[in-house]
Design a protein that fits this description.
- The chain is α+β, with helices and mostly antiparallel strands and 289 residues long.
Length: 289
């Protein structure tokens, strides 16, 4: 199945943009009914999709080990890496971005959290998705596809956009980028924040750049994927001093984002979307029993 959604009640799936290079997702009409928009699938894409659907039976168990442990060097690991990078057009949206995400112990003080998806962006390129400096930092790995969804908490007080950036990079390039993010502290710089996805007609429609309160960015090394999340208040209030999730989650933090738990919102949701992606990717690269 291609990138498509059986959206939760009230969720929005925006119309695709005309410049998409790899086909367009399904959309929804004014009555909420799914309408196919004619995904274009080339021979190579079809072959990849077929392999994933069949479980990639020709790939040995060593590939699974490489994915799960981050091993490198052999052809199996390279195949697993490439397969994970192609999941954006083979896995349903509800599997990558579930309609409801449970965050047991994800809130301040170990409180439980539940997030409900309110909007799914059409898959596309990275145009306008990142601030200029973050776009520059990610340029070395390229942008094959960007998937985004926006969630709200159980009280609809907060909104969080989470993204999966599928890059064009190989394993060494992803490892190099991850090392740079760590050594240069790029994930903590306010000029490298990802932008939110605000969908009209939802609780997140006023979630713009000036409403960003906390964020996190994680560069995976076992797959060509960057996972990120950015959170803010649902009432559209502006934030003068955004704070990275790692700082906002520290014990005793007294900033507004920290006191509201917005660091926990961003980090908790990003962690669970990343875990879900890893769980989805592992069966696609393992040998059927």
């Amino acid at each position: 199945m291609s990138w498509s959604a059986a959206a939760a009640p009230g969720a929005v799936l925006d119309a695709p943009r005309a410049h998409f290079a790899f086909g367009e997702p399904e959309g929804y009409d004014e009555h909420g009914r799914a309408r196919a928009l004619g995904v274009r699938v080339g021979p190579r894409t079809a072959a990849v999709a077929a392999c994933v659907v069949l479980g990639l039976g020709l790939i040995g168990g060593a590939v699974t080990g490489s994915w799960l442990t981050g091993g490198s060097g052999d052809g199996g690991a390279a195949t697993a890496f490439a397969t994970a990078g192609g999941l954006w057009h083979n896995v349903p949206v509800d599997q990558l971005f579930p309609p409801t995400v449970r965050g047991d112990g994800a809130g301040p003080g170990g409180a439980d959290r539940t997030w409900t998806r309110v909007a799914v962006a059409p898959d596309g390129d990275c145009t306008d998705a990142f601030d200029p400096q973050l776009r520059k930092a990610l340029a070395s790995v390229g942008c094959a596809r960007l998937l985004r969804a926006t969630y709200t908490d159980a009280t609809q007080s907060y909104v969080t956009t989470v993204g999966l950036l599928f890059t064009e990079a190989d394993a060494p390039a992803m490892t190099s980028l991850a090392a740079r993010f760590k050594s240069e502290g790029l994930a903590r710089r306010t000029d490298l924040m990802p932008r939110p996805y605000a969908a009209k007609g939802t609780v997140a429609e006023h979630f713009g750049d000036r409403q960003r309160a906390s964020w996190t960015v994680s560069v995976l090394t076992e797959a060509p994927v960057v996972v990120y999340a950015v959170s803010g208040w649902a009432d559209g209030r502006t934030v003068d001093a955004p704070e990275p999730a790692a700082d906002a989650m520290r014990a005793g933090a007294t900033t507004a984002p920290a006191q509201a738990g917005l660091g926990h919102e961003a980090q908790g949701l990003a962690d669970r979307i990343e875990r879900g992606f890893r769980k989805t990717a592992a069966p696609a690269t393992e040998k059927p029993s």
